[in-house]
Every structure is written in structure tokens, then in C-alpha cells.
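in:
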């Protein structure tokens, strides 16, 4: 799976409201800074001894930035999508990387929440056999 001239043309060609796509793309540029910062703070909160984990959200944000730039180039070149070949080259792997990083940090946050709850005073211990 990935982006191709045919799939992008099909998606954009079926919706005459290209300006709506541009507006959503602009919002997404700002949103990546919000979720990167928030998720980084969550990781620092639950993994204070593993500060490097707080970089995962910014890696996802950077991949999202590349993806958004590629989408914007495709929007700006539509209907001549073939005029933006770099977008079709860099956009799909950026999308995959973004979701790999997002999934990794969500797992890390969930593990941190579970781990911190098990360490709270009064938490029940597992039975030893």
C-alpha cells in the first residue's frame, strides 16, 4: 500500500472541495506540535528515568511534518499530480513511520501507567506460589 498517481487522483478527484483539504492540512501542521509536546510530557511523567523515550513523539511529529508537506505539494499540484514525484516517494514511508512511532509511544505510556499504578502504596501484589 502507498500513495500513487492513481490513488491520489481518485481521492482528490472525487472531492471538488480542494480548499477543505488545504484547510485540514494546515490544521494538521499545527496539531502535530500539540500532540508531540503533550505525549512527550506524558512519557517524561511515566518514564522519568528513560528520558530518551520523550523523543518518540517528536520523531512521530517530524514524520507527520514530512507527510503533511507531501500532501500539501500534491494538493498544490492537483490535477497534475505527476508534477510532485517527491511527494509520492517520501509521503508513504513518512506515514508508516509516523504510525510506528505513535504506536510505540502509546504502548510506552500504557506500560508506564500500569507500572506506576502497581508501585503505588496499597497496590495489591500478585500471589506468590
Amino acid at each position: 500500500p502507498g500513495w500513487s498517481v492513481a490513488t491520489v487522483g481518485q481521492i482528490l478527484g472525487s472531492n471538488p472541495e480542494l480548499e477543505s483539504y488545504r484547510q485540514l492540512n494546515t490544521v494538521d501542521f499545527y496539531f502535530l506540535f500539540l500532540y508531540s509536546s503533550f505525549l512527550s510530557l506524558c512519557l517524561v511523567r511515566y518514564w522519568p528515568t528513560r528520558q530518551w523515550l520523550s523523543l518518540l513523539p517528536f520523531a512521530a511529529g517530524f514524520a507527520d511534518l514530512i507527510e503533511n508537506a507531501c500532501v500539501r505539494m500534491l494538493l498544490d499540484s492537483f490535477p497534475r499530480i505527476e508534477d510532485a514525484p517527491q511527494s509520492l516517494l517520501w509521503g508513504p514511508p513518512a506515514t508508516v513511520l509516523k504510525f510506528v512511532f505513535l504506536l510505540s509511544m502509546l504502548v510506552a505510556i500504557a506500560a508506564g501507567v500500569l507500572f506506576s499504578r502497581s508501585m503505588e502504596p496499597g497496590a495489591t501484589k500478585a500471589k506468590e506460589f
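note: The chain has four helices and no strands.
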